[in-house]
Amino acid sequence: MFIRAYEPLEAHLRPNKVLILFGPRRVGKTTLLQKTLQHIGVKYKLDSGDNIRVQQILGSLDFREILSYIEGYELLAIDEAQNIPHVGSALKIIVDQVPGIRVIATGSSSFELSGQIGEPLTGRKRTLLLYPLSQEELLSTYNRFELRENLPDFLIFGSYPEVWQTTQRQERINILTEITDSYLLKDILAFDRIKNSRTILNLLKLLAFQIGSEVSMTELATQTGVDVKTVQRYLDLLEKVFVIV
Description:
Layout: E1 17-23, H1 29-37, E2 44-48, H2 52-59, H3 63-70, E3 75-79, H4 87-97, E4 102-108, H5 110-113, E5 125-129, H6 135-138, H7 144-149, H8 151-157, H9 169-184, H10 186-192, H11 198-209, H12 217-224, H13 228-240
Helix pairs in contact: 3-4, 12-13
GO molecular function: ATP binding
Domain AAA+ ATPase: 15-133
InterPro entries: AAA+_ATPase, AAA_14, DUF4143, P-loop_NTPase
């Protein structure tokens, strides 16, 4: 088990504030949340934004129903909160109306992209970005010699936590293939209603071939068959969902 830089997560919690933990898919947000709740020491409610009933209750923005939902709890934790309509406004109701309540909400990068939490939670939130494992975090499992020995593999396979829970090369390839096929572009395609992912995939391939070199927007537009403004928009979205940095 890797120790993440933000641990202990409860050190970042404040009364009547929302702690937003977001970042790319499959980097360990849910694992970190569950690990925190195991020793939080207060009565908490853990729910998922995928739960239709939770979507109905919080999405309704009905004061009475929302306050009844959270009654008796000192901490509310919602995983995949981006799936709840008007989630920012719902969490604002909770932190404004329940004295001392603390809230943790995790979500993929679309959570921030969609703008659901921006204005409603102004002055009421703290945001933490969780990335794949850093070298410092890897030191919780490997020593410095092992990090140097494994550097080629880190460069090839990256540092998604799941990848480093196996030593089998083919299994690592399978994990990365699944992440790519199932998650990599899911946020950007859903957010911007992009029907054809081929252009984005072609754009990513072109960028990969030009690592370390200056990139021409005009050249990218010509090779992908779209205009420069579209290329700029796609690059902006790819950066916001952490596909490129």
